[in-house]
TrEMBL record, chain A:
Keywords of this entry: Membrane, Transmembrane, Transmembrane helix
Main location: membrane
PANTHER family: CORNICHON-RELATED
Protein name, as recorded: Cornichon family member 1
Sequence similarity: Belongs to the cornichon family.
Transmembrane feature ranges: 7-29, 56-82, 123-142
Source species: Paramormyrops kingsleyae
UniProt key word Endoplasmic reticulum: no
Membrane topology classification: Multi-pass membrane protein
């Protein structure tokens, strides 16, 4: 049993995924608030938009770490989400600042439903990957 | 009864004092508002309040930024304080919280934060200008300091000063409505002690049921005529009170006082004792039922959340007052269409159905359609039921009893009659399509909202989303909420609304008994306030179902201060004018100035109306019009990177005080820039300046732009490739290039500023980006391609007419519109110019009578347990006279469970409009070809769905009669500038067409999509319409195909804002001579746009017909006379949508295409 770079990557990913789970929960709550009229869309977009890039960057960061650690399976599992993030950010509305959400279109029922669904899916993904990283970390620690 | 007499005397006293100080009886509310609105006084006397502020010495500099940051949140937080509201209602200790809110928003509103923010940072970079008055330099820095202090004057109106203000306590009590009402009424002892009235109340109520039952029926017809009479009486009285108000600067008075004033002003109006009684019990009822009020009110997400305490009841009345002040002051009452319909003579029927809810529909319908009274059907009615049900004869009971079942079978059958489109050559009806009639009982239909104002794509609402999906038709509403119309105006302190969903009481609610009504949207049972028991129209007590609110589906309320976030703003207009070389070349400036000069007195507003001007090229020019100057001063700001206001308080001036200066400026403005060489345009900075100038008050900014913005923030690049104009592949750049204009619009919207854009250009100006500034701030967009005052006369005339209408039309400020619908339905998407603030709330900085809205709906829950659905649009706005008003429209539609019924009830015009809106969204978000495919698929899918329902499978392309025009309209849509491909279309033209579809009301869109074509050279009086003393000829509607045109005829095409008169080459000489006043065809001038007034019958007929067409719209369309050989021919022929073009199907080909798609 040795503390390898791969094990370090898994530990780091574990911590960061925990952070991402919080992001996802925050996202879900924010859109629920919008749907139930508690918040103004302008305010809500202003709070949500700065969080989009950090979330994506965290994910990109540990993907790169896995790449360096040559954890191909883990990297492969993360590729779809990575690709989705890239696509999502490429197809964002015309905006001068960072972020994805436009207060003028956010209240459209389709977009609202999409964003909510996106939040739930991501939450599920992060939760599953959290346990996968836990497993991966132990496996790496034990096997090496 | 003695207790009863006392207050009545008090009220009579009031009546005589009308318009004066707060009436004694109203000690509570009457004086409370003014004292609380001390802040309001501050607001309206804004300019005067500066000097003392200045004198306060060094300003706490830290304050200004704080203010800035505070303002935004406070505005929005205020508008969504649900978490706060319930606590506010809970009890006195929390009142301070509510006050804090109010005061914050008030003080924030008053101070001009932006100026303070910027002033100290920038040395005045003034460009010395010849016309610039030298002494001006000196005071300038001082005024900067002034601005800073002004902004920091927030401490002057801190929270503390509010709570210590006399009456603040009472105010909060009013807001929190019911709980400790006693405080309110502590003033006059007469009112304070009405417990005896309480006890008398029941016995008064008890009387009617036991007493003259038969008389109720017998009086029915008699009642209706006194109603009319009564209007005539009321009208002048109300006028008087309005005048009085205007005279003493009523705008500055808190409007809460106004309603009661106008009420008391008509002494003959209310029988004293009764009225006093009403007032008393109104006050009491709120004390009596505190628990009920505080329990369920938490979702008071009011239009502004300020109306939380809307139930505070004192006195009130309703009087039908014409909507526009002009007609009010004329003294002539508007046409009778605005009158609430006389009590339906068949209203004795509802109880009948009521007592037998399970009657066979056919049977139920029979009595409904009869106008006989009791005796005739008494035979089949068990007598025992009659007395029970008669006290509340109301059509809303009909609604529950009969529901949508009692339909008109003929309509259904007609709507479903299969039509083989391929064989039906003349698909178009001979006269314009009639408005759809929902399949409702006659009584409900009579009170339903006018289809011009409010209509639904499906007049039979499908029961479930699954059924809707099967029908493949879009479900949505089309609204024209602020249409010019006369409607009953209700002045009442108690605006009766559902406690849980806040729906306004409407004709479709159910009165369970005299004291309770059931909301038709959420089905909650509510109490009828005592004030509502008195009907000012019939001057009777105990007939809540005869109140105008319950008799009309379109009403307007004068709102109390509960519906205000801040004191009603004055009318403020700012004109931002492009004066670059390009702009001067087009010559629009002269026309604009002339038009404004002519209409200066007709601008909607009161004594507080303010006006300002900003011009821009590569620099921004402000105009100091402060009263007392000998001539307008021009201030030039060349620092466009960080724009600031040179003298914040003298740029927007009171029109009344500075009228001469404004006139001076308008007459000299066109000459000032004739020799300018400046070609750049700094539109972005100019808009930022306008935002700063307007943000303390809100109002309307009219921007005139003639080219692509080339300098400063928001500069744009040309994105159009002329070679791709006629590409079939798809069109790029339909969306904005930058979000600068959108962000600015959102900021403006937050400060209640609407930006209207007039684009007068000859080259590409990226309307797709510029339009955002109007779109999201609820402005309007006008576009005049290749405008030139000499070379393009038709555009010039259009501009003049639009401007005339624009300047004088009604306007509503700081408006919000909420659309509520029956539980189970929800709003999916909004279309139009606005900002969507929450799922059902639109924020409209300005609302104008020419804008329409579309709403897509979805069905969340099954509507199986209801037979009727209702939609209610409530528009809360500040009128140009500084009154807060709420205009409420309610539409009621039946629910059906059969697919065939859904098809039968399809309103094809509304469907087309909604589809157009959806297609435009699609083409911006996805691509144009996607949108076009979606439109074709909409036809294919719905016709396939219909084919699958009907078992018979006749050959050909079969559509239900209700949808027979669907393919035609969709084809017409595909050939519109907005959505066509293959035909050369400039990007700006396309984008403008898209904007029009999204923001115009239905009638206008339909005329654009499918113009009406008439043959007019042989107009005759046969089948003419008799209107007053005129005979309006009604020529047959022709299909839009060249096949219908003949060289021997003259044809009129009505495209909404344009009328084409096409004169054939060999048109009959008499027509050309008599109507056009020319000897022969060749001598008709090229740019003829007037029909001369000639004294002969055919000319008279033609002119009557034209003016009849023009009356049907709010603006004056431009007439083009198109000669057969003229180049204008192409623009005429592009509207012939049934014909084949090089890139698009003809109608018949399109039908074949659909048939082919369906058989796939």
């Amino acid at each position: 049993m040795a503390f390898t770079f791969a094990a370090f990557c898994y530990m780091l990913a574990l911590l960061l995924t925990a952070a991402l789970i919080f992001f996802a929960i925050w996202h879900i709550i924010a859109f629920d608030e919008l749907k139930t009229d508690y918040k103004n869309p302008i305010d809500q977009c202003n709070t949500l938009n700065p969080l989009v890039l950090p979330e994506y960057l965290i994910h990109v960061f540990f993907c790169i770490m896995f790449l360096c650690a040559a954890e191909w399976l883990t990297l492969g599992l993360n590729m779809p989400l990575l690709a989705y993030h890239v696509w999502r950010y490429m197809s964002r509305p015309v905006m001068s600042g960072p972020g994805l959400y436009d207060p003028t279109t956010i209240m459209n029922a389709d977009i609202l439903a999409y964003c909510q669904k996106e939040g739930w899916c991501k939450l599920a993904f992060y939760l599953l990957s959290f346990f996968y990283y836990l497993y991966g970390m132990i496996y790496v620690l034990v096997s090496s | 009864m003695s207790a009863n007499l006392n207050p009545s005397a008090g009220y009579n006293l009031n009546a005589t004092q009308n318009g004066g100080a707060a009436p004694p009886c109203q000690n509570g509310p009457g004086q409370t508002y003014p004292s609380v609105y001390h802040a309001a006084g501050y607001y309206s006397s804004h300019p005067q309040s500066y000097p003392p502020v200045m004198g306060q010495g060094p300003a706490p500099s830290g304050k200004a930024p704080v203010m800035n940051s505070q303002y935004h949140p406070s505005y929005y937080h205020n508008s969504h304080p649900q978490p706060v509201q319930p606590t506010v209602r809970a009890g006195p200790p929390v009142y301070d919280a509510a006050q804090t809110q109010v005061s914050q928003s008030c003080s924030a509103t008053g101070a001009p934060p932006s100026s303070a923010h910027h002033a100290p940072q920038h040395p005045p970079p003034f460009k010395p200008l010849t016309s610039y008055p030298a002494p001006y330099y000196a005071p300038y820095p001082a005024s900067q300091g002034l601005a800073a202090t002004a902004a920091s004057s927030a401490p002057l109106y801190p929270v503390a000063s509010y709570s210590s203000a006399p009456g603040a306590n009472q105010y909060s009590t009013v807001r929190s409505s019911q709980a400790p009402q006693a405080q309110l009424y502590q003033g006059p002892p007469g009112i304070g002690a009405p417990p005896t009235a309480v006890s008398t109340a029941p016995c008064t109520y008890a009387r009617p049921p036991s007493g003259p039952q038969v008389a109720v029926n017998g009086q029915v017809s008699a009642v209706s005529s006194p109603v009319l009479q009564h209007y005539d009486q009321t009208q002048p009285v109300v006028t008087q009170s309005y005048k009085a108000l205007d005279g003493d600067g009523a705008g500055e008075r808190p409007p809460s006082g106004t309603p009661s004033n106008s009420v008391h002003s008509s002494p003959g109006h209310h029988p004293g004792p009764q009225y006093g009684y009403v007032a008393n019990s109104g006050g009491r009822s709120s004390t009596a039922a505190p628990s009920s009020s505080s329990s369920d009110d938490e979702d008071d997400e009011e239009e502004e959340d300020e109306e939380a305490g809307a139930d505070s009841s004192t006195t009130g009345s309703s009087s039908p007052v014409p909507n526009n002040y002009e007609s009010l002051e004329d003294g002539s009452y508007p046409d009778s269409s605005s009158l609430p319909p006389p009590p339906p003579s068949s209203k004795a029927v509802p109880p009948f159905g009521y007592s037998y809810p399970n009657l066979h529909p056919a049977y139920q319908q029979k009595p409904a359609s009869r106008t006989d009274t009791t005796p005739s059907y008494g035979g089949c009615n068990p007598p025992g039921y009659q007395p029970f049900s008669q006290p509340f004869p109301n059509m809303s009971q009909l609604s529950t009893a009969l529901g949508g079942l009692s339909g008109v079978p003929e309509l259904q059958v007609e709507g479903l009659r299969p039509v083989n489109l391929l064989q039906e050559r003349n698909i178009l009806p001979p006269s314009p399509l009639p408005d759809p009639e929902p399949n409702l009982s006659a009584d409900l239909r009579k009170v339903n909202c006018s289809p011009d104002t409010f209509r639904c794509t499906l007049t039979n609402i499908p029961q479930t989303q699954a059924l809707l999906n099967k029908a493949k038709l879009p479900l949505g509403l089309l609204l024209h909420p602020f249409r010019d119309l006369t409607l009953p105006v209700i002045t009442s302190n108690t605006i009766v609304r559902c406690r849980s969903c806040r729906t306004y009481i409407n004709p479709f609610v159910t009165f369970l008994d005299q004291r309770r009504w059931k909301c038709n949207l959420c089905y909650r049972v509510n109490d009828v306030p005592d004030e509502f028991m008195y009907n000012p129209v019939t001057r009777s007590y105990g007939e809540p179902h005869k109140r105008p609110e319950v008799q009309n589906s379109t009403v307007e309320f004068i709102a109390s201060s509960d519906y205000m976030l801040r004191p009603p703003q004055p009318a403020v207009y700012l004109f931002v004018l492009d004066v670059s070389h390009n702009a001067v070349e087009t010559g629009y400036l002269t026309i604009f100035c002339q038009s404004l000069l002519d209409n200066l007195d007709k601008l909607p507003g009161d004594t507080r109306t303010r006006l300002g001007f900003v011009t821009f090229d590569s620099t921004i020019h402000f105009y100091n019009l402060q009263e007392g100057l000998s001539q307008p001063q021009m201030l030039v700001v060349s620092d466009i990177e960080d724009i600031f206001l040179p003298t914040p308080d003298s740029l927007l001036v009171n029109l009344k005080e500075s009228r001469e200066l404004v006139k001076d400026l308008l007459s000299s403005l066109p000459g000032m820039f004739t020799h300018t060489r400046e070609t750049h345009s700094a539109l972005g900075p100019a808009l930022q300046a306008a935002y700063k100038l307007m943000s303390p008050t809100g109002g309307r900014v009219s921007v005139f732009q003639t080219q692509l913005p080339t300098q400063g923030a928001g500069l744009l690049q040309s994105r159009e490739d002329p070679n791709l104009r006629s590409s079939t592949k798809g069109v790029q750049h339909l969306g904005p290039a930058t979000d600068f204009y959108k962000k600015l619009a959102l900021d403006c919207s937050g400060q209640q500023i609407a930006v209207d854009l007039f684009l007068l250009t000859s080259q590409y100006s990226d309307l797709a980006s510029l339009a955002c500034v109007a779109k999201y701030s609820a402005g309007s967009i006008y576009y005049y391609p290749s405008f030139h005052h000499v070379h393009n006369l038709p555009q010039l005339e259009k501009f003049q007419k639009d401007l005339q209408r624009y300047l004088t039309r009604k306007i509503g400020f700081e408006a919000v519109m909420r659309i509520r619908c029956t539980k189970g339905l929800s709003i999916h998407t909004f279309h139009g110019n606005f900002f969507v603030r929450s799922t059902d709330l639109l924020s409209l900085a300005n609302v104008n009578p020419d804008s329409g809205f579309a709403v897509q709906m979805s069905i969340d829950e099954s509507l199986a347990d209801t037979s009727l659905t209702c939609f209610q649009a409530a528009l809360l706005y500040t009128s140009s006279k500084g009154k807060r008003r709420i205009r409420v429209h309610t539409l009621c539609l039946p629910v059906v469970s059969q697919l065939s019924d859904v098809f039968a009830g399809a309103d094809i015009q509304a469907v087309t409009c909604l589809l157009a809106n959806m297609a435009i969204d699609r083409s911006v978000s996805s691509s144009l070809s996607d949108a076009r495919d979606a439109l074709v698929n909409a036809v294919v899918d719905s016709l396939s769905a219909y084919r699958n329902t009907s078992n018979l499978q006749p050959a050909g392309l079969v559509a239900p009669s209700a949808l027979r025009l669907f393919p035609l309209y969709v084809l017409a849509l595909l050939k519109q500038k907005a959505l066509r491909t293959g035909t050369s279309t400039r990007l700006d033209d396309r984008v403008f067409a898209m904007c029009e579809f999204k923001s115009q009301p239905l009638q206008h869109v339909m005329r654009l999509v499918h113009p009406n074509l008439y043959r007019v050279d042989n107009l005759s009086d046969q089948g003419a319409l008799h209107l007053n003393d005129r005979m309006v000829p009604q020529p047959q509607l022709l299909q839009l195909t060249a096949e219908k045109l003949t060289r021997e005829g003259a044809f009129l095409m009505d495209c909404g804002s344009l009328l084409y008169l096409w004169v054939g080459k060999s048109c009959s000489e008499p027509f050309i001579r008599d109507v056009l006043g020319c000897p022969d065809h060749s001598s008709i001038p090229q740019n003829m746009s007037q029909i001369p007034e000639l004294d002969n019958p055919s000319s008279a007929r033609m002119r009557t017909f034209l003016s009849w067409l023009q009356e049907s719209r709010s603006f004056w369309p431009v007439l083009h006379v198109v000669k057969d050989d003229a180049s204008a021919k192409t623009s005429f022929f592009q509207h012939l949508v049934e014909d084949r073009t090089e890139s698009a199907f003809s109608y018949y080909e399109f039908l074949l295409h659909i048939q082919q798609q369906m058989s796939k």
